[in-house]
Design brief:
It contains three helices and 25 strands. The protein has helices at residues 2-27, 188-196, 287-291, and strands at residues 42-44, 55-57, 62-67, 84-89, 98-99, 101-102, 113-120, 126-132, 139-146, 151-158, 166-173, 176-181, 202-207, 212-219, 222-227, 233-238, 243-249, 255-262, 266-272, 279-284, 301-307, 315-322, 330-336, 339-344, 350-353. Strand 4 (84-89) and strand 5 form a beta hairpin.
């Protein structure tokens, strides 16, 4: 009888694991093939070879680009290179990427930048907030941008027990930001198991010097985050649930979910078009190719535009789609007055005039 019980439990467990693996393959679009949608007037950005995971463009047209992310489970084409922040001036006729110098006292050897967000204070000083993963931990680094010197002055490192497995942030005040946690577990095996089991244990955190709290729960893998132009709404991408959550921001910084927009593709980082408030989403059309990287059959790239976000019927259109022949593993797209930058987790970056 004891052996029968053991065999029954084992059989049920294997059946459950098999069902979860099949469901996981479906969630990450493991069999999807991409229909191309190409843009004209494009070229790859010289010097950005090891990723451009997140991009934030100032109202002045200066674009910050995070480069060199080392992330468990993701391809790494330059394992010995440390991370950098690049700058591009999109007002120039032929903008080029320039690596920003970082002030003495900051350990650049272990700089591993992920999501980024800018904040401009009342005296027009620009601050860059960077999610950093030194030694595969999570911190938020605050830098002051010196435009004339094209440099960053490191001001502060933020650590907190709730700021674990941080993916992206959006800054809305001095040291006041929302951050996404993309995994509950901090080890790669358990994080992968968490996604396979579809646990929905990740969340959004609000941070300020006076208060740190969880403000939204129930995400499979909370990823990119940004705010509407009027800062009344927060947009959060759930990458493995293939959707965007629209959340209303309250005076106490709590968030209330208004709606979810299903997209059918794995949504990474989000930005907002400053001209009209549309959401732009960098997406992974087939994440199996990302997790099981093969340069002969690389992961593709996809960029979506979501219009009329708050309406009953948002309009979703594809701006760009490529099978990996040009751009692999797109994570973000950001626009500025008819120009678009498309970044990737580990590959190159694309600049186009729309």
């Amino acid at each position: 009888m004891g052996k029968l019980v053991v065999l029954t439990v084992l059989g049920a467990s294997l059946a459950l694991i098999g069902e979860r693996l099949l469901a996981f393959r479906e969630r990450i679009n493991a069999t999807r093939e991409l229909e191309p949608v190409e843009l004209q007037n494009c070229h790859l950005i010289e010097g950005l070879e090891n990723g451009s995971e997140d991009i934030d463009i100032l109202p002045s047209g200066l674009a910050f680009i995070s480069n060199g992310l080392k992330y468990p489970g993701m391809p790494d084409l330059a394992p010995d290179a440390s991370g950098k922040i690049y700058l591009m001036d999109l007002n120039e006729q032929n903008p080029r990427a320039q690596a920003l110098k970082i002030s003495d006292g900051f350990d650049e050897k272990f700089f591993n930048p992920h999501g980024i967000s800018t904040f401009i204070d009342k005296d027009h000083t620009v601050y860059l907030y960077v999610v950093n993963h030194p030694h595969m931990k999570s911190t938020v680094e605050i830098f002051k941008f010196e435009e004339q010197q094209r440099s960053l002055i490191h001001l502060k490192t933020i650590k907190h027990e709730l700021l674990q497995s941080v993916n992206d942030i959006v800054v809305l005040g001095p040291e006041q930001f929302y951050a996404t946690r993309d995994h509950y577990f901090t080890t790669y095996f358990l994080a992968l198991l968490e996604m396979i089991l579809d646990l929905h244990w990740t969340h959004v955190i609000f941070y300020s010097p006076k208060e740190v709290k969880v403000v939204a729960k129930g995400f499979n893998s909370a990823n990119g985050i940004t705010a509407s132009l009027d800062h009344k709404y927060i947009y959060v991408a759930d990458v493995t649930d293939k959707n965007i959550h629209i959340l209303e921001k309250h005076d106490n910084w709590d968030l209330t979910q208004l709606k979810v927009i299903q997209l059918g593709t794995l949504v990474d980082n989000l930005t907002v078009d400053p001209d009209n408030g549309d959401i732009l989403a960098g997406c992974h059309p087939n994440a199996m190719k990302l997790l099981n990287y093969n340069p002969e059959d690389p992961p593709g790239s996809e960029v979506l535009r979501i219009q009329n976000v708050l309406s009953d019927q948002p309009r979703v259109s594809t701006i760009y789609a490529n099978n990996g022949s040009v751009l692999q593993g797109t994570s973000v797209a950001s626009v500025y007055h008819g120009k678009i930058l498309i970044g990737t987790v580990f590959h190159k970056a694309l600049y186009c005039v729309l």
